[in-house]
Amino acid sequence: MKHQRLRHAAKNQKIHPKKRRVAEKNPNTERTLYLVNIILLCIVTLGALGAGALFTWRYLTLSSRVAGLEENVASLTKERDERYTKEQLDADVARAQENARVSERRAVMTQIQSSLESGNSTASMLRNLFSDDIVVASGGKYYFYPVLDKVPVNPYTSTDFRLDDAGFLQYQGADDTITVTNGIDVSASSGRIDWASVADDGISYAIVAAGSRDEDGLIRNDANFVTNMDEALSHHIAVGAYWILSAKDETEAQKEAEHFVSLLENYQDRIKMPVAVWLETPEAGTRLESLTQNDWTENVKIFCSIIERAGYRSVIYGSLASFVMQTDPGRLQNYDRWIAQNDSGLYFPYDFVMWQYSGSGTVKGIDSDVNFDALISRKAQ
């Protein structure tokens, strides 16, 4: 009975053919899968070993570089510590300063020697040495003033002008908008003038002295003012006029300007040239000796404002000392300048419209030395 149940169970457990084929293992397939797994493991292992080798090589390289840099830093630090202690650094700075002083002294001495050997004056030598300052010679002393930034500068160079054979100034610079018109300024000290001969000599204009105050403070007209104005105009010579300012305060400056305007009334429509206030440096012991720079500046401002209200073109005449020492250029920058630089070249840092370039000119019809003046104009672009 037991034997029959076993046979029946075996019969019921008979495997289907398709299922048996699946269940049966293929030896070739297993071998192939094994080899593939081995190859993949080898590739992964080799990649890991390569990456490790690369990282190791880069680490060693960087370590070597770091070690080299540390060695260089240590060397530099040691060298700095050994060569640049504070005491040594101070000593090096002191030596450099001394060498610079010695070199500068040699350069200055060479420049002074060269200037003296060339026959230049002391003023010229100092102006070359102190090119950033205005060097003024006055009373046997030399004074130094900074150039003011707010005042319009002189646009010319020393080579822009020359004197022709007749002694008149000519412009030879590169700016073709600039023209120079030559003329003279005269007063009673010029003597009796033959204006016909002056006109024949090519003089195109004259600035005529009108007057000043005397030593006692009294207003005096120039003795030849009317004659010079009338005769110059009759010979077709353009005219302007100047007044020598000698006011000790603002009230006197106003009175002088008003008196000057009254003298010009008969010529107002015929005056084509500038009307100037003339600054002279007061001598010791005179009534104007105590005036300060501020006093002169305020007197000039009052005088010029009255002249311009009367319809004239005001100009300030003066020397280098007048403009720099006697007045404040920064407060007078709105007025034109007429600079007197006789026989000393063009040494003036600020812009100007007229230049008295000679005090020893010769003109037919005038027996004494004549002041030559140049009116420098710029044509509108």
Topology readout:
Blueprint: H1 2-12, H2 17-23, H3 27-83, H4 86-117, H5 122-129, E1 133-138, E2 141-146, E3 161-163, E4 169-171, E5 178-186, H6 195-200, E6 205-213, E7 219-221, H7 225-234, E8 238-244, H8 250-264, E9 271-278, H9 293-309, E10 314-318, H10 320-326, E11 336-340, E12 354-361, E13 370-378
Parallel strand pairs: 5-6, 6-8, 8-9, 9-10, 10-11, 11-12
Antiparallel strand pairs: 1-2, 3-4, 5-13, 6-7, 12-13
Helix pairs in contact: 4-5, 8-9
Looking at how many chains there are and whether they match, the oligomeric state comes to single chain
Arithmetic mean pLDDT: 82
Give the total of beta strands.
13
| H-E order | HHHHHEEEEEHEEHEHEHEHEEE
β-strand percent reads 15-25%
Secondary structural class: alpha/beta
User: Strands of the biggest beta sheet: in what spatial order?
Assistant: 5-6-8-9-10-11-12-13
Unreliable sequence segments: 1-25
| Separation of the first and last Cα atoms | 141 Å
Determine Rg (CA atoms, Å): 49 Å
SS summary, helix count: 10
Q: Estimate percent helicity.
A: 40-55%
Any idea what the shape is? Answer: elongated
The biggest beta sheet reads:
8 strands, mixed, barrel
